[in-house]
Amino acid sequence: MQERSRRTQAALIRATTELVAEAGYHGATTKAIAERAGVSEGTIYRHFPDKKALFAAAVMAGQRDVTEWMEQLPGRAGSAPVVELLAETLTQLSRLREAVLPLEEASPHVMRPVEDLSREELVDALRSTGGPPLLLADFLAAEQRLGRLRSDLDPARTAVMLLAAFLGVQTSPLAGSKGLDEDDVQLFAELFCAGLVTGRDPAASS
């Protein structure tokens, strides 16, 4: 059953990628995606919480270099100051900027706000998307187990908010045509870490 589910998800992601290339994000309707994948339209929502999550999964599937780097991240928990690891992670995620830009125009109303999702729905959404979002959640959970992050944080929810905030800034006109530079990424990491780490000075957390 799990293998069949993986094959179906892969077919939906492949169909989405093909249709987006042919017709753009707005032209890649869930009906067209389902027909291309050879499944019913309702099948999409058994594997992805909504249309934008499916688009995000397609983006992540096309960014294997970033995903492969992120796969090592949970195992690196505790190996350097939290802010240093986070800044390095955000630098890698900056490479997703060009891929994520079209998502900003891809019917944002189909995505339920994170505060409307239960923890179980959020984790399911992360797992269906896979790649960097889930790996970032795993990294935060590992740091939390080491006592380096606040114990009251929900790693899955925190990962979603971090990614949403960072990619939101990166794709904003305020970031310019090239996005945040290295110094800005470092500043973003320090600001975000100020609310995550157990110590007062995120740059000193180890």
UniProtKB/TrEMBL annotation:
InterPro entries for this protein: DNA-bd_HTH_TetR-type_CS (IPR023772), Homeodomain-like_sf (IPR009057), HTH-type_TetR-like_transc_reg (IPR050109), HTH_TetR (IPR001647), Tet_transcr_reg_TetR-rel_C_sf (IPR036271)
Q: Does the keyword Repeat apply?
A: no
**Domain of life assignment:** Bacteria
Q: Which residues bind DNA?
A: 29-48
Q: HTH tetR-type domain: which residues?
A: 6-66
Q: Which Pfam families does the record associate with it?
A: TetR_N
SUPFAM superfamilies found in the cross-reference section: Homeodomain-like, Tetracyclin repressor-like, C-terminal domain
**Keywords, alphabetical:** DNA-binding, Transcription, Transcription regulation
UniProt name for this protein: Helix-turn-helix domain containing protein
